[in-house]
Amino acid sequence: MSRPTRTPLSDSLKQLVGRPATAIDTPALVVDLDAMQRNLSRMAEFCRKHAIRWRPHAKMHKSAAIARLQVQAGAVGVCVQKTAEAEAMADGGVMDVYISNEVVAPQKLARVAHLAHRLASEGGQLAIAVDSRVGIERLAQAMNDARRAGREGAAPAVIDVFVEIDVGQGRCGVPPGRAAVDLVHEIRKHPALRFAGLQAYHGKAQHIRSAVERRETIARAAQDAALTCRQIEAEGIPVGLITGAGTGSLVAEAASGVYGELQAGSFLFMDADYAQNERDPAQPQFEHALFVKTQVMSSGAEHAVCDAGHKSHAIDSGLPKVHAFDGPHELDYANGGDEHGILRPAAPGVKVPEIGRVLWLIPGHCDPTVNLHDHMVGVKGGLLEGRVDRIIRVDARGALT
Ligand SMILES: Cc1ncc(COP(=O)(O)O)c(C=O)c1O
Q1: pLDDT tens for residues 164-204?
Q2: 263 Cα: distance to centroid of ligand 1 (angstroms)
Q3: Distance, CA 245 to ligand 1 centroid (Å)?
Q4: What CA–CA distances, in Å, run from 23 to 19, 28, 55, 207, 375?
Q5: Domains of the chain: which residue ranges?
């Protein structure tokens, strides 16, 4: 098994359920379940209003329990980025999974094919992105091998395949136009592969701060996707779906008339980096729902030190912000290393926090922060007054293959 085996939840964790949030030891990754539910409902409502499919990215929360909540709220399934994440979702009962990424290593493709057959036999579906002829040939080979290795008489599984086009991110994907059409023809040579549509995700657009510039960037991406779609259809091949979008740009894809599915993931937890985007007035109001609970372990004249460093939260998109609740922003967080955070007053007159003071950090980037933890503590009724409602396992923690 290539995925790490999960250790059972400890008794002390299980006993936390029902207790006040004040009982959560630090540092801990905490989900404000009420805020998460509001984000979920707003997103579901937005997609209903725009009559657009919704397939949230589960690489963000890595939890099958949360993925199932999203499906209950109207998502068609989830996206993942890694084969091992897809396996974790399927193990947790999520039946419709799209690997929105290229997989080319034969040993991984054998797992992809096995999972495609497994999900198909349980009434589910696996899909994957491709951007090369070699990737398509290897995928077809793996699907055929898995079929031969499977039970005689079992229905042949088909995997949905999306051709990824590079609409400006400069990451994976073939250029829009002819190169994509050629890959569609390659896919159609293999009975175990079904051409399902195009992936046109623009990652760089997500963090453009100006709302107008984000819209303009996605308008160009949509044009590229539409042009590619027309070229494929001109050869008599229907393009079932164009999929893409993240939390920063989703209003633009939804309004484009080109995209049929939104892949946004971070909206559910909303990190500090996304909070710096100028909000598009058409975008639902998403709230911070993911926090690192920390407490002050040392305090001096100029600064205090808390027990959450960058083993508790990822710092690739900047340091965490100290949550101010409804009051003014009082403290700045500075890097103190792996295990420590330095806290300084953010304004004149603010006191250095005393030993034992509890603080709630909003991580700079939610996805890699979640990946640092085995579980998240779900709280209802507010971070200060609320109670622990459940422990959410990070099923796909470390699922990198
Ligand atoms: C292919 C793809 N789709 C969707 C997303 C979701 O973006 P976000 O979590 O920023 O909403 C990502 C994020 O990196 C991605 O790589």
Answers
A1: 999 999 999 999 999 999 999 999 999 999 999 999 999 99
A2: 6
A3: 7
A4: 7, 11, 35, 36, 16
A5: 11-19+286-393, 34-268
